[in-house]
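Write out the 3D structure for:
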Amino acid sequence: MVRKYVLAVKAMDEYVLQVDFVSGSRLLLDMKPYLDKIRFRPLADPKVWNSVVTNGIFVRFGNVELSHDELLSMAEQEHNF
């Protein structure tokens, strides 16, 4: 049995990623700070950015893949000052 975590994803303006979890929680993750990293550079292309999909476990933008754990970790780092 494969457990699903992510219900839906949406690429929003200004490189904000909306992630809706099966728990009912919603994450708005600002991806702009990551666009200068080699791994995330392809997301700067609007075509790639708007291609976001999920299979319930991973969020994918073409060849760029993030797990739900990684998304939550990125959100935590965003708030550590």
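Residues 58 and 67 are 5 Å apart (CA to CA).
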